[in-house]
Each structure stands twice: as C-alpha cells, then as structure tokens.
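Human: I would love a firmer grasp of how sequence relates to backbone shape in proteins. Could you go through the record with me and say what the backbone is doing? Here is the record:
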Amino acid sequence: MKRLNLLLLISSLFIVFVSCNNSSDNKQFTLLSSSSTGVDFINQLKENDTMNYFTYPYIYMGGGVSVGDINNDSLDDLFFTGNMAENRLYLNKGNLEFDDITTMAGVGGDDKWYTGSTMIDINNDGYLDVYVSVAGLNGIKNNELYVNNGDNTFTEMASEYGIDDIGNSVQATFFDYDKDGDLDLYVANYPMTPFDAPRSYYSYKMQNTDDDETDNLYRNDGLSFTRVTEEAGLRTYGLSLSATVGDLNNDSYPDIYISNDFSSPDFMYMNNGDGTFTDIVKESTNQTSFYGMGVDIADFNNDQYLDYIQVDMDAKDNRRSKANMASMNPDLFWSTVNYGFHYQYMHNTLQLNRRIEGDKPFFSNISRLSGISSTDWSWGPLLADFDNDGWKDLFISNGTRREINNKDYFNEINLRPMSNDSLLYYTNQIPSEAISNFAFKNNKDLTFSDVSVDWGLDDKNFSNGATYADLDNDGDLEIIVNNIDQEAQIYKNNSANNFIKVRLKGSKENVFGIDSRVYIETENSSQMQELTMTRGFQSSVSPYLNFGLGNDNIISSAKVVWSNGNTQEIKNVKINSTIEFDIINSKSQTNIDSKESNLYFESVELVRHKHEENQYNDYAKEVLLPHENSRLGPGIATGDINGDNLDDFIVGGAKDQPTAFYFQNIDGSFTKKNFSFSKSHSKYEDMDMILQDFDNDGDLDLYIVSGGNEFEPNTPILKDRIYVNNGNGSLKYIENAIPDNYSSGMRLSHADYDQDGDIDLFVGGRLVPGSYPLPADSFLLENISTSDGIKFINTDKSNFPFRDIGLVTSSVWTDYNNDDWIDLIVVGEWTPVRFFKNLEGKFSEDTSMIDSDSTRGWWYDIVSEDFDQDGDMDLVIGNLGNNYKYQTSGDETFDIFYNDFDKNNTGDIVLSYYNDGEQYPLRGRQCSSDQIPAIKMKFQDYDAFSIATLEDVYTDSALDNSLHYFSKTFSSVYLENTGSSFVMSKLPVLSQLSSTNKILKRDVDKDGYMDILISGNMYNSEVETPRNDGSVGVYLRYTPGKGFDAIPTQVSGLFINGDVKDMEFINMNNTDYIISAKNDDLIEFTKIK
C-alpha cells in the first residue's frame, strides 16, 4: 500500500510538473535560465567618479549581440559585446546549451567600450569572423575585427584589413554596394555631441565634418579595404545609431538607411549604381522619428516591397510619458524643419513602401494605425515571423538604465551646484525603472496586436541589442537579448507551425549570398526576404532565411534572385526542411522590368500654381488648440466659365493671395486671368467654391466661401461672395447678392430643395475665430433670383431651425428616404452624422436612421450614391483616419471640454484621452500650465501631474459645466442604406492612413458600378501630435456583393501626396484629369487613363 501511495504521489507530482511546463510552453516563448543554457553574460556597468552619466551621457546605450555558426557544426553560436564588461563568445552544443569559449577564442577584448557587432566571412574561407564597433569617453576607439582561425580561436586584424575605423562607432554592416562580387563595409559613427546642441551646430557640422565624426564606407579590394566615403558622397555628420541595408527601390542595388539621434536628420542613401549614393529621405518620406534609434528593413505586408521600422522613445504609458519623456516643443521642432532637415516626431515610424517611381521609393508612416508607435525608450526593432504563420511580426527591445529624461529630478539638480566628486552620487540618484520589451503579432492587415504578455516576453529589463536565430534547429526563431546590469536572455520559441529554412551558397567572394532575395510561394501566401545580417540595434542575425508557412503544406515555388541578378527556382519543395541554393546552378535573368504598371492613373505636370498660406500663429490665442484652423484651404472649382466648351478652373487663395482663375486654351494649355476685384479681394481667406448657374441665364456664376481663423469673429471679412457671369467669362462681384452672414465657413453644397427650379445653397459654419470649439452658424440660403439679378436669402427659421449644427466640414444633398424630396446630411468635427429630412421644403432632424452617438467623429467630406444599385442612396464619409495620435476604442472616447476653467474671462481648451481604462488630460504639465498657470501650483511637480486624471486636474463640476464634445470613431466609413436605416462599416485599411478631406465618385473600371477616389492629410497639427500625412490618395473599387476594395498605389498609379484640401475632375483634350489643391503647395494634375 505504501508503495502504491508512493507511485501515486510520484505520478501526481509528474502530472503537476508536466502541467506547469505545458503552461509555460503554451506561450509562444519560454525564457530559459542561464543555469540551463550556460549563457550568463551580463553587460555590467561599473559607474565611478570619472565614468558616469554626467561625464559620459551615452553610458546607457548598451551592447549588442551577434549570432552565427562559427565552427560550421550547423548550430548558431552567440557573441555579446560589453561596454565595461568582457565580450563573451558562447559555442552552441545543441539542445540550447552553450559553452563559454571567450578566453580560448581570444575575443574578450580589452578595456575599450564595445558597442555593436556583426559576423561576416571577411576572408572567404568559409568561417564566420566577428567585426566589433568601439566607442567610449576616452582612449583608443579603433574598431576591431576578430578573424576566425578555423579552430575556435580568433586573431584581431582590423588594422591589417584597413577597417579599424577611428570614429565613435555604434554599428557596421557588410554589403556589396558596387556589385563587384565581394562585400564592402559601412560603419555608423555617433560623434559625441552635447544633448542641447542647437540646430545651427548640426547644420555647420554637416558641412564641416571631421574624419573621426563621419560615417565611413570601405570598399573591399580583395586583401584589404579602402575608405571611399568622399568618393561615394557619404561624408556627413549625423548622430548615427544604426545603419541598415536593403534594396528599397527594387533596382537590385543595395541602399542604406541611417537612423540619427536628436535633430540630426536621417539619411536614406539611394545607391546610384555607379559607386555613389544620394540622400532622398525628404523626397521619399513625409516624416521620420526624432530620436531615431534602431532600424529594421523587411517586407512586413507581403507585397514584395521592402518596408522599414525606426524606433524612438515615445512612452505608451500616460505616467511615463508625462514624467520621464522629452517633449516636442515648438521652437525645437520648427528650428529643425527650418534648417532644412525634416519633419521629425518623437514616435516610432513604420514606413510602408507605397510605390517606386523611377528610381525613388515613397514611404508612408503608418505606426499609429499599426499600433506600434509608442514602445517607450526603444532600441532594437526586429521584423521576423516569430509564430511561423507566414507574416512578419515585430519585437522591440527597450529600456534605459536610468531615467535621464526624468523632469522632476533634473529640474531639481539644475538648482544645485555639482562638483566633480559628487557626479557619481547624483548619477546614482537618477530614478530607474525596468520595463518590458514589446512583441507585436502581425494581423495581416497593416495592423499589429501587442502580444508581449501572451507570448511570454513581458520580463522587465534594461535591454539594448537583440537578435533572433533558430538556435535549436527546429524551424522557429529564438530571441536573444543583451541587457544592462542583468543577465542576457534567451527566449525559446514554441511554434508548431510549418516552416522552410533557406541557405544560400554564394560565390567565393560572397559565400553566404548576402544581398540576395528569396521568394516563397504557397497556396495561400507569397513571401519575400532579403538576406542582410545587421539588423535592429548593434546586432546581427545568422546568414540564412527562415520562412513561416502557417498551416500550408505545399510550397509551389522557392526562388532566389542572387545579388548578381542570376536566378534559381525549385518547385514543389518539402515543408519543414532546409533547402540550399547554390549560385553555380543559377541562370542569368533577362528582361527584368521593375517599373510599375499604372493601370488607371498617372501624375502629370500641366500648370504650375502654388497656394501660399499667410503667416499666422493660431496658438498665440488658443494655446491648446489641437490643430491650426487658419490652414484649412484652398478650395477649387472647375467648369466652362467663358462658354467655349473647355473646362476652366479656379483655385482659392489664402489671406493676401488673390483667387486664381485659369482659362483653358484649345490646345489644352491654360492662361491665368485677373479681374478687377482680384487684388482687393485678396484680403479674404478662400475656402470652398462652386461654379453654378444661379440666375438660370445659361452661364456659370461663382460662389466662394470665406473662412479662416486669423480674423475677428462676426466681421465683414468673413462674408461669402458671389460673382455673376456676364456670359463670356467676365465675372463681377455682387455685394448684396447674399445676406450679411459673418460666419467663418468651409464647405457648401447645392440643390433645389424647394423644387422651384433654381439652385439653393447650404453653407456650413466651420468655426468661431479664436474660440475653438464654439460652433459657427450655418445657413440654408434660398435662391430668389430674378431677371434683375442673383439674390439669396436666409431660409426662414420655421423651415430650417438648425443654424447651430456644430463645426461643419461638409454636407450632401440626397433623397435618402425616397420620398422625392431631396434631404440634407451634414457632418463636421466632433459631430455625429446629422440627417435633415425635407418635408416639402421644411426640415426636421431625423435621428431614426442610425445611432447618432456611434457616428461622432472628425468628419471632413461626404458623398452620396446608390453604390450597390438597390434603389436607395448610400453614403461614404471621410474621417480623421486611424493613423493619428488621437484614437478611440469602444467606450473609450476622445473628448474636448471648453470652459473658462481659471476664471480669467478667456475660454480654455482641454483635450482628453483614455489610457489603460482611465481618462487623462492629453497634454502634459508644461503645455497645460501655459494655458492655465494655476495647474503648476496645484501639481507641484511632473510626477504628481503624471498620475492625475482628468477630474483631478479640472474637477468634476467644472467639466460638467463645460461645452463638451466627444468622438467615438475616427474611421472613414461606408453607410449602406437598407431602406429603413443605415448600416455603418469601415472602409478598407488603406483608406484609414490619414484624414480623408475629399471624395470623388466615378466608375473608374467601367463595370457599371460607381467607385470612389479619396485624398487628404492634415499638416496643420500641433507639433506634439505628428502630422497626419500617411495618405497618397486611394482608389476604392466597388464590386457587387463584396463592397469597396482598396487598390494599392503600385497597381492603380494614383499618387496624390501632400496636404490635399480639395479635388475636382477636369477635361482637357477629351481626356479626364483630377486637379488637386493643397495647402501651401503646388496644385497637382492626375491623368485618368
């Protein structure tokens, strides 16, 4: 009996043990202990009186980790760099167990400050060598090269090879930039620069760079390398934290992305194919990260185009963002822009490759939409398929050993004199908080889900360099992390999905086939990876490619395009195996065509006209305004003004810029014409405009909405204008044609609402100048024109009692209820979609068609059409989009409160958002107290404000008595009319990359169903909110039974970048075009093929 009980006890303990293990293994990753792996490396910092944060501010940038098979036993080994600790090399024995062979190998280094490392076969002997970057406060900073002797020992030979770079190096990458068959070297250097260096300093140094400051390019000349930095056009000054290689424009030549810290701009170096490079970062992106750190380049959406991610230091957590993180003050931001650098914002940027035009790619940052914008103090991003489902996921290492941006602490010590012998003391007092790294699962729709906890990667660390590798050869990727003052971590991957591993056997000068691309085709997916080893931050991967396959069981094709252009393909590959391509078996590829096939649209240059915005500082009066309301124009109108059967066009002007009139000539060119009123009427801010025959005399008259935020409210400068056409294109201003409605407007719409045979107008009131978000008056204008002239009056309030509709941005007339009377639907900023039912000329608000609160958003345009051809009118409505700092989710709204909170007879704006279920003020302590100084007295330090809720700061009673709006959705949507109600659904994800300011409808593909074209962006955000600039226009094709489908730019050819405010169709020489008007920019023409 005792024996039986003992067996039962042992059995139960075994079950418990297995259950515990399964509980751990059920997560995607399992953290292995150093006692089981033998990897006990710690990048231990030993701060002292001479080496601490105040003597060496870069002390917490940490070390890297490289992975590769140094002894050719088919097991990946690990090399860690130490700043003040010995480098360590661990030999993989199998079963995720390692031996420390550092001493025997001779790679521990000396007292140098080692940073990044990468493995490479420098001498083409079939053994991986290790190149190590060196930085530090003092001493010799020559980089080192450990050449593999083939017996697990190494010899340092950087000087012999001519690559012992003298700069303050962070990382290096090997690639064949000149395509001569061997691997060249790029070294990223970070010259020590004061954190508070002005933009003028960067500008000067970029033109006057010392040899030990510039990044360097070394050409491989066989037995040694030659520095060719100047010849290649790469001598420049930047605080480089990473250099990452990839063929960004699909021309087969490897390009380089350099991520730079602080105001020093990033560089996107396009390889010109002649040994030189050209920086095109400002032409190919609309924005970059400000404190640019690590970068990884990969095709994360499986469209065969390389994208990239750059990380920064924007906190996800409300408390940390307000207590510890740097802020983007306007002077810093605009000085960076005005020195000719770039629009640089403090958040991660995930740059989606939208198209390649000629030899230039163009990228849109979609980090807010994707959900990966804010991952705290981030260092190393890695794009790889960690769950083997066929889509690349994202791992981000982050953390800082001490909170060197803690505002309270540094405000306090700035008041104290510090002597040299107290620097260590003050360093040790800097607050410190370990935080977890981030893992994001690819949702296959340009978005990611945070799975840090679910995947078992939520250990709190001070992480820097990180890499991935299949350490146990089971077909999935482990994650390896180098931490400060903590043991390095190895996370075992527990994936059960199918995979294929690809190894390349290249030429004798490039034995691993670096820079080559591999394409995998299965029944459900197409994938592409490019083999480059340096990735993320200070780290490198092993020279093979791992593809997840999900549940796919058949690989129809595996194809390699070698770096020399040759190709090789294998059909019907066995899954869960390793295949090897040998360049000897490759064939020359001919008829390579990397040009895009623009099926529907083509950008063309026809008329060079620029809208020029006047200078006005909206924030001088409205400190916490969410965006500038003085930059909402211009509008545009097209039509045959002079009766010659040719389309002309008009573009609105900003204050002090005349309205521009362009008349078409018979050859399709245009002639600009001025009128007698042109100069005097430049005092107005032109918004929307339409050309219609208001007096029924057979020609087109002109109505222009006046708007703007730079004027005083309720003054004549806000009155709209009508210009009557004399029949031959001569326009005359008629002052008394419309009532004296002094409201700052934006858009108007027209219809014969009373069925009396003439055109009536609805003019939406956009704002009260200087008093956002107070609603402006909107007006329904009844046309009572006679043969004596044009005349509009305000519709009697008994017929339309709805002047206070909100911050109106757009409207549409449509008979949504099929009663043969055209109805009015109005949208705006902070408003629901509002339906005004026409009861034979009298209007009543109809709230039965949809739940109003669910439609509250920042709407910017609306169109109506029977898209599904079921006999009733549907709607498409453009919103702010899902790629902006402001977000909503379920009941977690984005809100605004307006009140005189501090009783100084001035209205105050308070924006709020939700973070982890709690409602907080959006803005930080400094900005909030700029508007209400008493906040600094109420919250004596940043820490107190960082945990204060909205009610803590502004009180329940004051908030309850405020003008209060909220938004429930920022998605652009399709509202399908079911006959009795509207059903709302989101438009495709490519429609959500920015604000949709204009929607046009047209049957583009001529299938009998109306499609839509959208454009937008919002460049007028305040600087702490990265501008909404992710749109390049989208063609949305409607298919019966399926709905709208977004056609990618590479396929459609539609590319309308910039701050687009309006679009219209125009015909020239029997060909249709789109003309787009942009704020403070040139107009643009797009040919419809």
Remarks:
- The longest strand covers residues 349-357.
